[in-house]
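Q: Structure for this?
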Amino acid sequence: MPEYMVTHTLADRLFREQSGIITAVLVHRFGAAHLDTVLDAMQDAFEAALRRWRFWGIPDNPAAWLMTVARNNAINRINRDKKRRPDHHLTGAQEYVTPEPALPDVFVQDSQLRLLLICCHPELSEKSRIMITLAVLCGFGTAEIAGALLMQKEAVKKSLTRAKAVLRNAGRLFETPLVESLAARRNTVHTVLYLLFNEGYKTTRGTSGISKELCFEAMRLTKIVYDYDTGNREAAALLALQFFNAARFPARMSTDGEWLTLEEQDRSRWNEVLIREGFYYLPKQQEPLNRYYLEALIASIHCTARFFSETNWPQIAVLYQALEQLVPASDVIALNRIIAESYTGTATQDLLDRLDALRSLVADGKGFEWTMARAHLLCKSGAGDARNNALQQALEYVRTTADRQLVLRKLEERCPPF
Amino acid sequence: MSPFRILICHYTANNFINFKKNNIMKEFLLLIRENPDYGTEMSSQEMQDCINEHIAWVQELTEKGHYKDANPLEARGAVIKNHIVTDGPYIESKECVSGIYFLKADSLEAVIEIVKGCPDVKRGNTIEVREMMQLEV
């Protein structure tokens, strides 16, 4: 057995993070045109590690080992391709054959940011931007992406193939200064990271770890954007929002894997360190207002209420109102505002009427949220039977077992007296 | 008796027990057989989990004194028969030996129980266990 056998295991999420870093650094070096080669070379490096480390244990610096092996694989593959096609116009790779000193962090971070910007290509749909980001920057396999986004594996595969073809032709982005490319795609990047986190957050109800990984990856990438773009308050607000939401992870599920509502959660299980991080990044003021800032403020109000009954609902309702003006077409925000106002003494019938006007949410795949909100309001108005009917209806829109369990539990409970 | 002397006695006694224990333990060779494509469909996280499970398993074996050695094998090799050399080793076979372990245990039954806990078995690979013959009977 070689000398370097060590008994400790690989650090949490090391492979996931390294696969993103290796892809980014090698694409930065060899160009986006070589994306497929880089991905294959990286996969080979990980397989080589799998074959060896199962028997030997891990080397002192597994990250450096993976980077070196992947880089050498990529060089070999590119040189082989060049020999086959001597007039090939792609830049060569020979100059990197010699071993190199450790990569500076700045280079690694910049490479990841550049690759993220490429993943936010305007020709891609929002969903494919999320999928390709997960695939190339977060080391997600096709099955994992399908599981996390509640999609079919085949659909994910097709979409990734198309996205990679677009990315291969995005090489120029590596030649323009990072500041310029970021300025051009800043909003798109923020949106993708916001949606990536939300995808994880809403499906954490569904199954176990994998969806939480989406949130952690969104946070890691947002931090990279923030670190480069420190003066940008939108990025800071987005990061704050993610920390506030992540702080509540440990309490969102019961030990039996059942989803718990905000009211039912054991608030002592909220992660105080993450809440403090949230406040650290939360900008003190924001002009002009943006949705991340308002949502972060709302999340911070939840996080600072020691009990559900202490929640400052009037303030939350006002913030939702501001959000509605900022994002006029969002029915989800309107729905959340209705829920918030149901705790502020607004007449329940008015709220029910306003909810009825949002019925189009059902057709938009938000049937679960809509029917659950309706059940909540009916319960408040004392219409127990109608409330139970709404819950029965909600059963038709459940997406996960945890969704179903929540509805079934609510059906067993009677409306609490108000 | 001086404390020093007690210490020496204790040391010798312990050594004697260890010596006897080592003598009783038999040695076994484990051949791990797996599909040459093993790992190609795994995501980075799955690979990391697989490696970590192995390290934890080996760690447990080491603590209990069962572990002796292990090594992966290159896929590259050759088969020699009747002076004819062919590329090997996996002609027409879906599984080839990817690595070996040397373990120490009291009996074949005991080592079978150990192997049942190997992460490779859980992941559908085949493990062949063979007891090594010993020089002295």
